[in-house]
Amino acid sequence: MKEFKRAVLVIVSAVLLTSWSVPAHAADGVFRDIFENAFYGGLAGTLVGGALLAFTKRPGDHLDYLSVGAATGVIAGTAYGIAKSSRALAEIDNGKVRLAMPTIMPEFQEASAKGGSTVMLKAELIRGKF
User: Fold this and answer.
1) N or C: which terminus of the chain has fewer CB atoms within 10 Å of its end residue's CB?
2) Does residue 23 lie within any of the structural domains?
3) Sign of dihedral through CA atoms 92, 93, 99, 105?
4) What are phi and psi of 103, to 5 degrees?
5) What does R_g of the chain's alpha carbons equal in angstroms?
6) Looking at the domain assignment, is residue 4 inside a domain?
7) In this predicted model, what pLDDT tens digit does every residue of 34-81 receive, in sequence order?
8) What share of the chain is helix, strand, coil (3-state, %, to 5)?
9) Residue 119 lies in a domain
10) Is 108 helix (H, G, I), strand (E, B) or coil?
11) Residues 78 and 101 in one domain
């Protein structure tokens, strides 16, 4: 009886999740760009992990370097893709508000008194089209 209740719960959950889901897509291929960056990051990470196998005495014992490199590459590629695609914290376009992580841009300013330079970080908080 317990397995029957669990099976019914799984079937009902699957039906509800698939019938009421709203299809979502990113405008201008943003999701595609993030996915490509994650994919290529994973490939590059796997190559780096494979290259590190050359420096071990028994490479067959350290094949986990490949998976760790791939996982690190996917995370780094995804982070790069998200940072590259987002511009402002809140963007207003045709009456719709989109929230995202703002792009932080460094700006170098030279100090006149001491002759050194200062690094300032700036990020857009609101962007809109009127």
Assistant:
1) C
2) no
3) negative
4) -80, 125
5) 23
6) no
7) 889 999 999 999 999 999 999 999 988 988 999 999 999 999 998 888
8) 55, 20, 25
9) yes
10) strand
11) no
